[in-house]
Structures are given as C-alpha cells and as structure tokens.
Design goal:
Blueprint: E1 4-7, H1 13-24, H2 34-42, E2 47-57, E3 60-74, E4 77-89, H3 98-112, E5 117-121, E6 133-134, E7 140-141, E8 151-155, E9 166-169
Helix pairs in contact: 1-2
C-alpha cells in the first residue's frame, strides 16, 4: 500500500470532515465532535496551513493530522508550542502505518517551521511510540480533568522544555 502524505487544501475539507467523523465514530474516549473542532481551528489564529496534513491511498484521503499553535503559560512567562488535535485514520486503514506517517511528517514540518515541541491529549499506549512522555515530567499541566498519563509532550529540539513549566493555554476554539 503506497501512502502519499501532503498538505491539506481547501478542496479536501469535506472529505476530511467525513474522515474524522468515521475515525472517531466508535471511539469510547471521544465526544464525537472532533470534525467540528478541526473546522473551527482552520478559522483561528492558531491555524498553520502547513501543519494540516492528509494521507492518501489511491487518491483517496484516508488520514488527517492537525497541529495548531498553543502556549504554555506560567504567570507572565509564555512558551510557544503546538497541540496535536487530532490524528484521524479511516477504520479500514488503521494499524497500517498511516497514523505513524502522519505524525512523523507533522513533526518534521513543525521542525522546519521552527516549532520546538508538541503537546497531545491522547492514548497513553499510542503516543509514547513516537517519543511522547507525560507532560507533568516537564512541569506542564493541561487545563482539563484527565489522567496525567493521557497528557503528553514531545521535544522536537532536545531539552527545549527543560525549565519550561506552566499550564497549556488552548485557543478559544477548543471550548466553543
């Protein structure tokens, strides 16, 4: 199976909406509104078009990932980061390397754009495979009441989170 990874374009929005809806349809730990969140984030100041990426197989969009700008705040101190929200793969294409390719490409593109870290609220057994670790190891807190093992961070630049602590501040579109 040949997987092509590329930047999402406007013409992909409908297919990506449906893809996200299908990807999370049976997910237990989901409010099943991720597709609406992606729509809101595309219209926000936090949106970076180069970090909205799709995976195609035979010219069909089978996966999508979005990284958006967030801040880690501690009083007056702010540190720019990215939030991975969400990575979505059609059920028939899950466990075939699509998500891995999307995450790896998103990390690479983020580095090229000079972003230095990524945060994710996600599955504790999946994201550590890519180098994510519990955010509280870095002194980073999430503004949600979720288990700490689901709140993770990765340094795209070695030791960049050393000395960074605070609470993640998400764009208002996350709570709309």
């Amino acid at each position: 199976m040949k997987i092509t990874i590329r930047q999402e374009i406007t013409e992909d929005h409908k297919a990506v909406f449906e893809l996200i809806e299908k990807a999370f349809k049976d997910e237990v730990y989901s409010d099943h509104t991720e597709q609406f969140l992606v729509e809101r984030l595309r219209m926000s100041k936090a949106f970076e078009p180069a970090l909205s990426i799709v995976a195609e197989v035979d010219n069909k969009i089978v996966g999508h990932i979005l990284l958006t700008k967030v801040k880690i705040k501690n009083g007056d101190d702010e540190f720019d980061s990215l939030a991975l929200t969400p990575v979505s793969v059609l059920p028939d294409y899950q466990r075939k390397g699509v998500g891995r390719k999307l995450i790896e490409q998103a990390h690479q593109k983020a580095k090229e754009l000079d972003f230095k870290s990524v945060l994710v609220l996600g599955h504790e057994a999946y994201y550590p495979k890519f180098g994510y670790q519990q955010a509280n190891n870095f002194g980073i807190k999430f503004p949600f009441d979720v288990p700490p093992e689901n709140c993770m961070a990765i340094e795209l630049v070695e030791n960049v989170l050393s000395g960074v602590s605070g609470t993640v501040e998400y764009p208002e579109e996350f709570s709309s």
